[in-house]
Here is the input.
Amino acid sequence: MSHRTCLSLILLSLALGGVAHTDPVGPSRSAPILAADKWVAEDEDNICGIKDLKKVSNPAKVDYDGLWDATPQIKKMKEKKIDPDSTEGKALRSQAKTLITKTCELVRSAKGYCGIWKTIKNEDGRTVPDATDDVKDKLDD
Here is the structure.
């Protein structure tokens, strides 16, 4: 390896915040390689907050069906036996979805979650907090 190449590698390494290593035998074993979190979810399961799984750090999940049934709009639709595919039924369903999204965003922000999902897990098996009750409590506000 030429002197110019070594100097270039040292400068590049320092610019990137690392320590230069010029051993031609192989990479340094002193710095461990850290695996990134591996979050597993479907795009359509994101309700609010960060959607890019590479940027997820502190998500929460909710029982979306439970939230759906807890909205005043869906309760009204069921009590009055409104056809979900009628004009009024579609309007109520749209309002329910908007209410859930806005309420999840309020809880996400208040609790410091990076996002709220219908379903999300991490490959390392950690527990994802369930924010369903927090969201339900605010649906009636």
Summary: The helical segments are 3-15, 64-70, 72-79, 87-111, 132-139.
